[in-house]
Amino acid sequence: MSFISNGVEYALHCLLYLVAQEGDRVEVNVRDLAVLQGVSVEYLAKIFTRLSRAGLVIAAEGARGGFVLARTADEISFLDVVNAIDGPKQLFKCREIRSRCAVFGSEAPAWATSGRCSIHTVMMTAEDRMRQELAAHSLAELAGQVARKAPPGFAIQVESWLDHRKSNRSDS
After folding, report:
1. Is 132 helix (H, G, I), strand (E, B) or coil?
2. The domain spanning residue 126 has which CATH number?
3. Residue ranges of the alpha helices (H) in 1-153?
4. Could you give the number of structural domains in the chain?
5. Is 1 within a domain?
């Protein structure tokens, strides 16, 4: 079981296609993103509803409309996307197992249960560090990494594919 859902991964991949080159505004339809990512339109629509509620994307008006980033890519962190899709769930929930040791009998001694559980403390520190790391990385940074890794012309290829789908949709 993953702490971070598949929805977060799909959201990040889809948001990459909304990152503009040199200040242009990129508008992409959820149906096109679903085909591009090989996932159902219904699934991505739910993801984009969450992204919209979180203020990360806004719906563009009109029949050919899609979604655009609500903020610049450098203002959207991985943590923003995780919280939008999965919510602020905890990594660990202490069950106070320490108070149920059979050796203690019917009541655990104060030394065993006083203060925060040591396991819980480590887990909370790990969660805090993970959230700090997610907050430290932006969608713009991710887009830059992908652009450096992809072969020359890939971004143009994707843009042409999306433009072709958009023009075919408007003729229907």
Report:
1. helix
2. 1.10.10.10
3. 6-16, 30-37, 41-53, 78-86, 110-113, 118-135, 139-149
4. 1
5. no
